[in-house]
Design brief:
By secondary structure, the chain is mostly helical. The protein folds into 2 domains: 209 residues, Rossmann fold; 79 residues, Orthogonal Bundle (Tyrosyl-Transfer RNA Synthetase), CATH 1.10.240. It is 56% helix and 7% strand. It has 13 helices and 5 strands. The strands form 2 sheets. The chain has a 3-stranded parallel beta sheet with strand order 1-2-3. α8 links the parallel β4 and β5. α9 packs antiparallel against α12. It is globular. It starts with a strand and ends with a helix. The protein binds adenosine-5'-diphosphate and tryptophan. Adenosine-5'-diphosphate (ADP) binds next to α1.
Length: 319
């Protein structure tokens, strides 16, 4: 089984990225041949500067390696190191109806937020389809918000195969319902766009301060509280063991346990959970040569695979 996912280097990664995408992708690396890439072509649609893009790309590589990505198991690479996907994007464009792209939520959301539309933003899902199809991926672990893009990929692949012959494997999205949407400080979906996020490798003081700002209801210390509707608990359960979760649920329901206490517990549990990742990241920061060597090896393996698919697609289309 081929498992593939990508993430944009568009800022510091946060807990939503970790639980929604990184952790599932890293866990799946033992269940098949995994491909994971840093989507820097996609990030060009929103990048602020070349230096920032380069730095963010390197940061994402460090983050994944620190969090347990094993380059022996996962083909880990930069999207732009495989230019074959841009050619494949063009070939797929031919079978992509305008209406399919016009219906994409992420495109519509960006327009609604006043981001000026250009062709790259509109064609973004076709590049994503090329990423997925180039490696004949079976499974694509992503957060809920990316599900539609995987569905678009399936539509494009089916259409291409019907028109030109069986070139592409039809992929399935893999979405963990239990952590499908990690809430941010305000209870909305955690996202750097909403600036309600907690960074994975944030500074200790800042992280603690952010956690203390998590929005809760205004129940007093002695009142019983509902863990199921509480943002603090929603984050806590991502880090804590089942027993510890049950203990906090009981404290909530019994009353006499304030949100301040719960937040402190959340911070301590989260900080401890991430400690080994921080140690590994620190070590990797001083070994850029190693990080680059991983990406260079990933590039070779990814290109080989993408080139095969591209050749088959070109041939099928009469090029
Ligand atoms: P952001 O919203 O911060 O810009 P991205 O859109 O770049 O994050 O998301 C990168 C990956 O992380 C995607 O696979 C996405 O589905 C996942 N992801 C992002 N935020 C969350 C969240 N709050 N909960 C679950 N998954 C998320
Ligand atoms: N669009 C995805 C995101 O913003 C990143 C991405 C690009 C991706 N190509 C992909 C994810 C292919 C999965 C498969 O998160």
């Amino acid at each position: 089984m081929r498992i593939l996912s990508g993430i944009q280097p568009s800022g510091k990664l946060h807990l939503g990225n970790y639980f929604g995408m990184m952790k599932p992708a890293i866990e799946l690396q033992s269940e098949g041949q995994a491909y994971l890439f840093i989507a820097n072509y996609h990030a060009l649609t929103t990048s602020s500067s070349p230096d920032a893009l380069r730095a963010a790309t390197h940061d994402v590589a460090l983050d994944f390696l620190a969090c347990g990505l094993d380059p022996e198991k996962t083909v880990f690479f930069r999207q732009s190191d495989v230019p074959e996907v841009t050619e494949l994007t063009w070939l797929l464009s031919v079978v992509t109806p305008m209406g399919l792209l016009e219906r994409c939520h992420s495109y519509k959301d960006k327009l609604a937020r006043g981001i000026p539309a250009n062709h790259a933003l509109f064609a973004y899902p076709v590049l994503m389809a090329a990423d997925i199809l180039a490696y004949q991926s079976n499974l694509v672990p992503v957060g809920k918000d990316q599900k539609q893009h995987v569905e678009v990929t399936r539509d494009i692949a089916v259409k291409f195969n019907n028109q030109f012959g069986e070139v592409f494997t039809i992929p399935e999205p893999s979405i963990r319902e239990s952590v499908a949407v990690v809430p941010g400080l305000d209870g909305e979906k955690m996202s750097k766009t909403y600036n309600n996020h907690i960074e994975l490798f944030g500074d200790e003081k800042e992280t603690k301060a952010k956690i203390m700002r998590i929005v809760t209801d205004s129940k007093g210390l002695h009142e019983p509280k509902d863990p199921q509707t509480c943002n603090v608990f929603a984050l806590y359960r991502l880090f804590a063991s089942e027993d510890d979760c049950r203990e906090m649920e009981n404290l909530y329901r019994n009353g006499g346990y304030g949100y301040g206490e719960a937040k402190k517990k959340l911070f301590a549990t989260m900080w401890e959970y991430l400690a080994p990742f921080r140690v590994k990241r620190k070590h990797l920061e001083s070994d850029s040569a190693y990080v680059e060597s991983v990406l260079a090896a990933g590039k070779e393996r990814a290109r080989e695979e993408a080139a095969k698919t591209l050749a088959a697609a070109r041939m099928a289309m009469g090029l």
